[in-house]
Design brief:
Blueprint: H1 3-19, H2 21-29, E1 36-45, E2 48-61, E3 66-76, E4 79-88, E5 99-110, E6 113-126, E7 129-137, E8 145-152, E9 158-168
Antiparallel strand pairs: 1-2, 1-9, 2-3, 3-4, 5-6, 6-7, 7-8, 8-9
Length: 170
């Protein structure tokens, strides 16, 4: 399995949380420890593709941060490997999330449940590379994120999709 793909998966998951950490923290802060969310991440970078399934579990919440443990598996080129456990700590500060392009409301079905979601589409410039993020949110899901689609420029162009599969909010 390509280290490049594994690095891309880790980068996307960690940078997604960090780039939106104020909102992410607020969504996790409404949960009790033991709450969790399982998501599927699909990355397409032209000739390099990967699929990961991750579970983020809330370990603790303080006034400054939420502490999450993330585990999962990644499949690329027919091989599946366990991803190393990671601790994520979204904090209370809001980070500039980019230029708002548009927003709206849409119903999504997840795990047999119909969720009313608010979505926002933003453009982010990360070191000269422009990416467009569309994020669907619903407060009943730990972390708030229900689906995310990311389109990145560059060579080769890349797309990433994160979809919540299941969750438990305590």
């Amino acid at each position: 399995m390509s280290g490049r793909i594994a690095g891309a998966v880790a980068y996307i998951l960690v940078s997604f949380v960090q780039a939106r950490e104020g909102r992410e923290y607020k969504a996790w802060a409404s949960c009790k420890p033991g709450s969790w969310v399982k998501a599927r991440l699909e990355i397409d970078r032209g000739e390099a593709t990967a699929v990961a399934e991750t579970t983020a579990t809330l370990l603790e919440v303080t006034k400054e941060k939420a502490v999450l443990e993330q585990t999962g598996t990644m499949t690329s080129k027919g091989k599946t490997v366990d991803m190393p456990k990671q601790k994520l700590e979204p904090g209370i500060k809001d980070v500039e999330a980019g230029k708002m392009l548009k927003q709206g409301d849409e119903d999504l079905e997840v795990d047999g449940k119909k969720l009313k979601c608010h979505w926002e589409e933003t453009e982010v410039d990360e070191n000269g590379l422009k990416s467009t993020y569309r994020v669907w949110r619903n407060a009943t899901v730990p972390g708030g994120m229900v689906r995310t689609e990311i389109r990145s420029g560059g060579a080769p162009a890349a797309s990433t999709r994160i979809v919540v599969l299941k969750w438990e909010k305590k």
